[in-house]
Known about the structure:
Blueprint: H1 2-7, H2 14-35, H3 45-65, H4 73-93, H5 101-133, E1 137-139, E2 142-144, H6 147-162, H7 168-195, H8 202-226, H9 232-237, H10 240-270, H11 276-280, H12 283-296, H13 306-330, H14 337-356, H15 362-380, H16 386-396, H17 402-409, H18 417-441, E3 453-459, E4 464-470
Antiparallel strand pairs: 1-2, 3-4
Amino acid sequence: MRFKEVFSGAGEDVGRILAQTKVLQGDLKVVMGDVTPCFPEWYDIGQFYVEEYNQRLSTMFSELAQQADDLATAEILNLVKWAQLEYEPQLKTWGIQVEPLTTALLPLMHSFKDDMKKMMDQWCTRLLEADRKNEPDEIDGKYYTDAPVLLFKFVNQQIDVVAPTGCKKFVGVVLEECIQVIRRYQLAVVKMLQEEWEQLFMEYTLATINNNTKCADYTQELRFKVAERVESDQIARIDFDGCAAAFEGIAGTAVTVIINIIFKDLEPAIEKFFQKEWHERDLMGEIIATLVDYFENEDVKAKISFTVFVKLAQEAVERLVLRYIEEMFNRKHTVDKKVIAKMKADENALRQFCSDDASLPDKTTDVLLAPLAQLRSLLDTDVDMVPVYLGDLLDEHPDVTLLMIETLLSKRGDLNKIQLKELTDTCARVFETKQPAAVSATATTATVVTPPFLIVVIHNEHHTHTTHYTL
């Protein structure tokens, strides 16, 4: 009766409900201060009254939760704040333990979260669209757009809205959804980079690299901000490191887009390797000059961090080595001393480029260019030494196949068909001896850099074969 009397005129008006709760709090103070001493201790009369009031409050709040769509954001926040910062602390001062009212308010928290999700998803879509239209700003000599600042400003605003309620569970609910919004934003950026890279300006793509590196830092800052505001089980479920790593991965994808843009320009020249124009012109020199032009005149080197530039330069060299080897295998040509000399000159030019323009350490360069020297050795060495060089090659690259070696050796101009057959048979025996050991050795062998997988597609008159081996 008392409960109905107090809230009879409040209806679903959250403001009036919260005003009337003061009447109930006054009742409980009377019970705990004046009534409880009049009863034997074993009656536990205070616990009884609090449990009854708490149950009815919980029921009323649960009914309100059914009408969550009709409640304003401020009303949800005020309900949670009252339960967390006024009601439950008062019960603790009396030593009373009951089911927290915030449990009954959890559906309202999720309703708040759902509305926030819709708003943030729409906002992130607009952010990405608008971000592409604006020219990047230059900050400390590097390109950036507003996206990372605005994205995390919006995320932090959502945290700041619910933090004053003092409810760690509520903050955790909002934080988990904010991370999911960030994840969806990340996927949208990756999709844009992968599907629309040809329409992106160089400056914007460079800014995207820097943006996502900054976002990775902002993710860690968010972790520290919420560390004490969220329940431990909720914070444990949030993969901040994975989220930050995803931003770093997007920066890496943007680096690959830069490489794609550059190599789209280079491809006409690359396709002439091991053809007539390759013999007549310094194609490698022309390609290197184009790379240097992109690095210096297109601001690739200046507008991103040095560390990222080195990764970009390394990927460019990896891509060029890959394409060079593909053309070596796929073009119909005969290898003689002039071809070997041309290959050596190309390799030396690449090595000089790695040192002077790509800023790559010598050890990294050695690893990147090693396949060129190893494959050239099989084309240039005395026939008797081929098995030796092949054994060394298999020790490092166990994925090399006999078909690949046979295709390569068939380009040697100093071998007739009988000699080629005999040499191929000898190489087959090397494979039988070396490959099992080489395969097991890969589990324990370290390299200077993380090597990419080189995919060499070999075409001949009878079939097409794709070979994967590790640089």
